Amino acid sequence: MKRKHDGVRALPKDWTEVIEKVQEVLTQTQSEAAAREQGLAENMPAIPHPEKAAYWKQGFEQFDERLSLFQARVQQVEDDAADAELALADGEKALEHWLARANEITQRVVKTQTTATSSDGPKV
C-alpha cells in the first residue's frame, strides 16, 4: 500500500473490488460448508432421546434373547438330524442284511426246486 506523506495510508483505487471479491469468496465458502454440514447431518444418525435410547436398548436385548433361543433351537435341530441320520444308517444296514438273507433263501429255494425237478425228470 502506498502511504501519503503525512503518515496516513492510502488505499489502492480498486480496494472496493478486492473487498467485494473477498466477500464473494467468504460467502461461497460459507455456502459450501453449510452444504457439507447438511450432507453429513443426513448421513449421521441423530442422537436419540433418552427414552428412545432405552427403547432401542430394550429392543436389542430382546433381539439378543430371541437370537440365543433361535441358535439353541438350531443346535437342537442339528442334533436331532444327526440322530435321525444314525437311525437311518442303522435301518439301512438292517434292510441290507434282510435283503441279503432273503436273497440267500431265494437262491436256496431255486436250487432246491432245480434239484427236485431234475431228480423227478421224465423217465423213459
Protein topology:
Blueprint: E1 2-3, E2 9-10, H1 15-43, H2 50-119
Antiparallel strand pairs: 1-2
Write structural notes for this entry.
The protein is mainly alpha-helical. It has a domain at 10-43. Helices cover 80% and strands 3% of the residues. The chain has two helices and two strands; from the N terminus they run ββαα. It has helices spanning 15-43, 50-119; strands spanning 2-3, 9-10. It has a two-stranded antiparallel ribbon. A hairpin with a 5-residue loop joins strand 1 and strand 2 (9-10). The longest helix is centred in the C-terminal third of the chain and has 70 residues, at 50-119. It starts with a strand and ends in a 5-residue tail after the last helix. 0% of the residues are buried.
Number of helices: 2
| Helical proportion, percent range | over 70%
Reading the helices and strands in chain order gives EEHH
Class from secondary-structure proportions: mainly alpha
Largest sheet: 2 strands, antiparallel
What is the typical, i.e. mean, pLDDT? 85
How are the strands of the largest sheet arranged? 1-2
Number of extended strands: 2
Which geometry do the CA atoms define?
Answer: rod-shaped
Q: Kindly, what is the distance between the CA atoms of the first and last residues, rounded to a whole number of angstroms? A: 150 Å
Query: Which oligomerization state do the chains in this entry correspond to?
Result: single chain
Radius of gyration, in angstroms, nearest whole number? 48 Å
Give the low-confidence spans.
none
> How much of the sequence is in beta strands?
under 5%
